[in-house]
Amino acid sequence: MIAFLELLIGGFGVLTLVYIALSLYSRSVRRGKLMAEWDAVGSGDRDVFVQQGLEEYDGSLRRKLILGVYVVPILLMGMIIYLVNFY
Fold first, then answer.
1. What are phi and psi of 65, to 5 degrees?
2. Model's pTM, two decimal places?
3. Which of 21, 34, 58, 86 gives 53 a disulfide partner, CB atoms 3.0 to 4.6 angstroms apart?
4. Which residues, including other chains, have CB under 8 Å from residue 38's CB and lie 6 or more apart?
5. Could you state, in order of their start, the residue ranges of all structural domains in the chain?
6. Which of 53, 67, 82, 71 is nearest to 20 (CA)?
7. Distances from the Cα of 71 to the Cα of 32, 33, 37, 50, 66, angstroms
8. Cβ atoms 53, 63 nearer than 8 A
9. 19-53 pLDDT, tens per residue?
């Protein structure tokens, strides 16, 4: 039982690091796209345009899909445990 708890805690730690890295990367890519879009249009204040775009990004579906980093591995591990033990 202790080994299982260690696996859960360690796995959660690793998944959290992956989530943070993926979230920061996705946000920086979105910021780059917003800056490129502003360069093409070129009207208004650049910082305000980027900030409004990032606020829209924070409520987007893409941002929520990154939470799949937690869900998919847990489901796969549960399925493997079930198939090995009960199938």
1. -70, -25
2. 0.82
3. 34
4. 44, 46, 49, 50
5. 2-86
6. 67
7. 28, 28, 33, 30, 10
8. no
9. 999 999 999 999 999 999 999 987 788 999 999 99
